UniProtKB/TrEMBL annotation:
GO MF annotations, alphabetized: thiosulfate-cyanide sulfurtransferase activity
Record protein name field: Thiosulfate sulfurtransferase PspE
Keyword Transferase: yes
SMART domains (alphabetical): RHOD (SM00450)
EC number: 2.8.1.1
Alphabetized CDD domains for the sequence: RHOD (cd00158)
Listed Pfam families: Rhodanese
Occurrences of domain Rhodanese (ranges): 11-97
Keywords for the protein's UniProt record, in alphabetical order: Transferase
Annotated InterPro entries: GlpE_sulfurtransferase (IPR050229), Rhodanese-like_dom (IPR001763), Rhodanese-like_dom_sf (IPR036873), Thiosulphate_STrfase_CS (IPR001307)
Enzyme class: transferase
Organism: Microbacterium foliorum
Length: 100
């Protein structure tokens, strides 16, 4: 399984980012540009995944790692973000919070 750090994620510019946290977690704040497809729904929403390579993030890296492993077995080019959104925030990076 391919993995990148939060620092490496911050340096990327055109790689789609899928956030597999639940909707309420995503709404509380997420990496700018991330698209929310919760882990619990991803099997029913495969058509929404990018055709090209993409990154997968969760809160700490565990859920996203499981999702990446499952997607790789289906032929997707997915990369896990180690440390997840929690590490992104811990490094003081900006987050997006959708307006209510």
């Amino acid at each position: 399984m391919k993995s990148i750090t939060v620092t490496e994620l911050a340096e990327r510019s055109n790689t789609p980012l899928i956030d597999v946290r639940e909707v309420h977690e995503f709404a509380a704040g997420h990496v700018p540009g991330a698209v929310n497809i919760p882990m619990s729904e991803i099997g029913d929403r495969l058509e929404e995944l990018p055709a090209e390579s993409f990154d997968v993030i969760c809160q700490a890296g565990g859920r996203s790692a499981r999702v990446v492993e499952a997607l790789e077995s289906r032929g997707y080019d997915a990369t896990n973000v180690e440390g997840g959104t929690g590490e992104w925030i811990a490094q003081g990076r900006d987050i997006e919070v959708p307006s209510a």
